[in-house]
Fold this protein.
Amino acid sequence: MDTDGTRDQVYEDGNALGGPLSEIFAVDLTAAVGRCAGCGATGPMARLRVYDRAPGLVARCPDCGRVVLRLVRGPDTAWLDLQGASSLAIPLGPPS
Ligand SMILES: [Zn+2]
């Protein structure tokens, strides 16, 4: 088990972030390609391992286990922590 107790818990893939993030962003971030700030691995956000037993969602890198994203939804505010992602490439298509 990890020091914060989440490593051995059952997780979902990053597609579980799609609904909660759609409330904040106009584009589907599960298709965005993120770079892990811990190990440098890149891949679609849908590849992350999402744990929902904490207060909110915790998404970890499938390669090194580092927390890439945390999202907590309160009654009237969402807190989004992306400090574990050094970059996000978000597919938008050509400018309209
Ligand atoms: Zn990593």
About this structure: The beta strands are 12-13, 33-36, 42-44, 49-51, 57-60, 67-73, 78-81, 85-89. The chain is about 5% helix and 35% strand. The radius of gyration is 13 Å. The longest helix spans residues 18-22.
